[in-house]
Amino acid sequence: MRRAAPLLAVVVASVLALSGCAKNARPKAASANPVTSASAQGSPIEASAVPSVSAAAASPSQSAKGKPPTPTAKALSSTKPPAAAPGRPRGPVTGPGPAGSIKDTGSDAVALTFDDGPDPKNTMDLLDLLKEQGVKATFCVVGSRARDHPEVVRRIAAEGHTLCNHSWQHLQNLSEREDSYLSWDLQSTNDAIRTAVPGARIDYFRAPYGNFTPRLIEFAARLNLKPIYWDVDDECYTTSKYGVGPAMANHMTAIVQRDTRPGSIILSHENLKPHTVATYRSLLPWLKSQFRLIALP
Ligand SMILES: [Zn+2]
């Protein structure tokens, strides 16, 4: 089994990981982005907050109590608390995405999903835009960032958007980690969100880079989190090819306009990506004109 990596490797891997989400993302060098560097320096996530295996085992998170016995994703629909409005379907629990993850909204509505925040600048700017346009979206937040920017998480929730667990520190090989780490990672992310927003509803989990496996989905299901993938990837991370100006906006827009269909889930990233917000300024009115846009239910 893989043991804990040396600290430096973990830090480097985490910083790189946080610069993008999709599988084929080509992360920018951490030093090239001052926000990444500052954040990494100012955030002790890798150094102190992530427990070793033994620490995780010694300090089980509080919600370990009452943990259901590893329901399958399919069983989740029956174990779900009766929070949904009666008679209103909540969409599929499993889908045709990797390892059975969900990749459509289950209706004709289109869901915008924004990953890797909260980012104190770009998430706030995006929230301004969404408010202006009257659109609700889904934010897949990284636990350590939620801990560092609780005010942003509070605003996401207060303005009616959906929160999604995107793991504690965006490890590309999350699914290969040991059981105790996985439990700690997913629970800590939920805890960070609920520290910011007590009682926050968290129904979704997105694996870093979309690297879902049946085992990871099972761990998410223990927390009643549904695995959410996407079917449209706006490729906002391809900055080495398209830069962060008009060429990138055109690229992202072309993809979304070409690939989005009723029921689509669109993958975007706002963390460290002001060009995503800039692109959505023009893209959002188009999306609104073509589709009903929803936060995941
Ligand atoms: Zn991501």
How would you explain this protein's 3D organization?
It is built from 13 helices and eight strands. It has one domain (7-51, 100-294): TIM Barrel (Alpha-Beta Barrel), CATH 3.20.20.370. The longest helix is centred in the middle third of the chain and has 18 residues, at 179-196. It is α/β, with parallel strands linked by helices and 297 residues long. Helix 6 packs parallel to helix 13 and helix 8 (150-158) packs across helix 9. The chain has helices at 7-17, 34-42, 45-49, 53-58, 73-79, 122-133, 143-148, 150-158, 179-196, 214-222, 239-242, 246-259, 274-290, and strands at 110-115, 138-141, 162-165, 202-205, 226-227, 232-233, 265-269, 293-294. Strands 1, 2, 3, 4, 5, 6, 7 and 8 form an eight-stranded parallel β-sheet that branches. The chain is globular and about 45 Å long. The structure holds zinc ion. Residues 21, 115-116, 166, 170, 208 line the site of zinc ion.
